[in-house]
Amino acid sequence: MARYKMINGVRSECTAEEVAELDAMKADWDSKAFDRAIAGLRFKRNQLLVETDYMANSDVTMSDDWKTYRQALRDLPSGLDTVAKVEAKEFPEKPE
What residues contact 70, with CB distance under 8 A and at least 6 apart? Predict the structure, then answer.
């Protein structure tokens, strides 16, 4: 199937070299899908941990519910090895 590009408003067919370059770029992008997915999960997880860091201060007594919640957040990425698993992973509920 032919691929096309626009140059100055003119549609022209891509050369074999351009098609090969596009295919290589797509393969590279696809190969890093898991890295992007796990990075997004870790970013959100880290934000949730930061929101509760004050509870880990020495002058605050953290309840068992909060300890369990924070540990569940830290354990969240373990065992995830596919994009589907990352996308299906649910975040723990924040205690009341």
Answer: 49, 52, 55, 56, 62
Residue with tokens 């096309």: 4
Q: What does the pLDDT look like over 20-44, one tens digit per residue? A: 999 999 999 999 999 999 999 999 9
pTM score over 0.85 = no
**Letter for the amino acid at 74?**
R
Spatial distance between the Cα atoms of 17 and 24, rounded to a whole number of angstroms: 10
Closest CA to 22 of 1, 42, 38: 1
Q: Which of 65, 73, 75 is nearest to 91 (CA)?
A: 73
CA-CA distance, 63 to 70, in Å (whole number)?
11
Q: How far lies 31's CA from each of 47, 71, 74, in Å? A: 26, 30, 26
